[in-house]
Design a protein that fits this description.
globular, mainly beta, 47% strand
Length: 146
């Protein structure tokens, strides 16, 4: 039984989230800054009548921040009652993945990826990394400190 996943790009890497965790995707032209917010919080956006905080995945993953482009997308994800946007460089693909294709990441990756990467998937000509959205949107810093 295959599961639909949303594929998105951050920097030179491709990541996936189960489609069941993604409410929808939106274009991104900018966000309203929030004073005192952690550096990885790009700010707030209004999406379909609700105000949503946006996590810049580039910053969260230790990459330099870049200006939004026409390809920039916000993946709106929901965990419990919490709704958060994840800003990606590009998101426009859905893939079907067999759960047996999800492999644990190599130890070096899991150690260095701050728990963000939970699985890797090898496909012909590409490697996808499944992330833990709840960990990514959490308030802890990548080293686990609050």
């Amino acid at each position: 039984m295959t599961v639909l996943h949303v594929v998105f790009r951050v920097g030179d890497s491709e990541y996936v989230l189960p489609a069941s965790e993604v409410l929808h995707m939106e274009s991104f032209s900018g966000a309203t800054a929030v004073p005192g917010a952690p550096p990885h919080v790009a700010g707030l956006v209004q999406v379909r009548g609700r105000v949503v905080p946006v996590v810049d995945l580039r910053v969260r993953f230790g990459l330099p921040r870049i200006a939004p482009t026409l390809d920039s997308r916000v993946l709106i994800v929901e965990h419990g009652t919490r709704v958060v946007g994840l800003l990606a460089d590009l998101a426009r693909e859905i893939v079907r993945l067999d759960p047996s294709a999800l492999q644990p990441p190599p130890e070096l990756v899991s150690d260095q990826a701050a728990g963000f990467v939970t699985h890797v998937v090898e496909l012909p000509q590409r490697l996808l990394m499944r992330i833990d959205a709840q960990r990514v949107i959490g308030e802890e810093s990548p080293d686990g400190q609050r």
